[in-house]
User: Fold this.
Amino acid sequence: MNDDREASLVYLYDQLAALEAEVRGAVARRLEHDSTPDDRFRGLYISEAEVERLLAQPQPWTVRRRDRHPEAGELAGNGKAAADIRLIRLARTFGLDDADVAILLVALAPDVDARFERLYGYLNDDVSRRRATVGLALELCDLHSAAAQARARLTAPAPLLQRCLLTVEESERPFLTRSLLVPDRVTSYLVGDDRVEAAIEPLVVQPAGLIVSDAMRIEPEVGLWYVREHAGGAGLSLVASALARAGLGTLAIDLERLPPAADIQHIAGVSGREAGLAGAGLVVGPVEVLAERGGDAVRAFSDLDCPVAMIGGRSWDPLWSRRIPLQVEAGTMAPEERRRMWAMALRDDGEAVDLDTAVASFWLSPEQAARAAVAARHQARAEGRPVRSDDVQAGARAQNAAGLERLARRVTPAMTWDDLVLPAEAATQLRDLASRARNRDTVLDAWGLGATASRGRGVTALFAGDSGTGKTMSAEVIAGDLGLDMYIIDLSSVVDKYIGETEKNLDRIFTEADRVNGVLLFDEADALFGKRSEVSDARDRYANVEVAYLLQRMEQFDGVAVLTTNLRANLDEAFTRRLDAIIDFPAPDEQHRRLLWERNLPPSLPQSDDIDI
Assistant:
């Protein structure tokens, strides 16, 4: 145990010694007013003799060598030394006054010294109730149990309860007889244990340590920040570096790891407490996960009484907090920053990886890149070879959130350019489309053309042709060429007969799509386009609005989005101008049909001599 933990423990024991003196006084008062000392039913509770025996026992902490440590009064008066004492630091961090600390110690005592269990049982006049009650705590702290100010210390708005340092149990009992309980995490912190609370440990992520900018500053008077970033941004690294410059650590919570039935209020309270114990700012994101559960879920975190930075991709909603956040635009990492991020993640294992091509299509945060690198390293070592580009791509694909798979079918590409049988013009357009997606960062960022672009960074296309002409396969080939997975969305299942519901369904799809790196294929777009051939009522006219909304969301999407249709004629020029590419897939002619048969009949397949393809 290092010196600051030892000193903190000695200080805590000194406070418990003072509490024992108060307990002695309370016992004396009980004995003075006890009218039945010879009650034959005394076996149902702790006797006075047992209490005297407990109080006569040496304090369990006096066996320590205390000559190496200053007394409690000296520590409290020494500002520098006090800052290293955990109980004093906790009081300062959470805004506790002397009376709050005294109540906390009363509730904490049985968890540090088992003698207090039996002593409290005696004072409660109930051997089964070995925790301090509200009434007993107020008595031991010399607070009047009928005074509103004293009772308010143990109600919800008070810092002890609001900051999850103490809970008042047994709400069905009268107020003064309710038991007080200190969470185990608070007790373990005070005795020197710095392990994160078990309830949030699976949600905690470590910042990757990539300092991307000094644009964000942490000011004491600002308690809430909202960092808006695009998918694969470095918002967490940005906040962590700002917190470090302010002398604070970072407690980062990945909300995508929340269990479906998680108690958000409890998770938020515990997270705020953990940040305070660690001397850290709390960073949570993506905020969209909370927004889907309602405004109360967002406010559970944003209204915490500690420095909170929230990260998300959508605009801030004023209803999300009673506080006004300082809003920061994280921007996107430049190509050289992303390359440095991957080099840091792969370290020496990246020597055989061409970073300029292997990960150019992936937008990952520094933390996701670090996890992808670990996955690539494990795969390579399992096969006894160096890390390759395909290992890194597989690790990057593994970082895709699973939410989109509830709304779309995920496909790992198996087709390559050699599998396509298309006219030369269509094949060239497809390769140009893949090249555009691969080099967009260079064009938009390194060459500076993104500064004047009003649309998103993504690539959109329309594949038009009859069924069976290779539209879906072509999208799969492009995805494989970029090293991405493909997500197939059947628009016929998205379109809803009720006005407004189709847009809600599309919004859910694109919200989840923002959390993955992949190619979106909107199949069966005729479910929308087909409505344009006959406009006879309000529902048919509203189909135009749905098409416009779909194209608008595709423009805002930062990845690759492809529509397939059999009815290109039903889409007017006003809509087609909003797409980056329109590729026609004609029915295969005789030559192409022959190639298709030859490629789909492997040489190993037994064939009769009379087969004439």
About this structure: Confidence is low (pLDDT under 50) at residues 60-75. The longest strand covers residues 459-465. Residues 3-33 form the longest helix (31 residues). The CA atoms of residues 341 and 366 lie 6 Å apart.
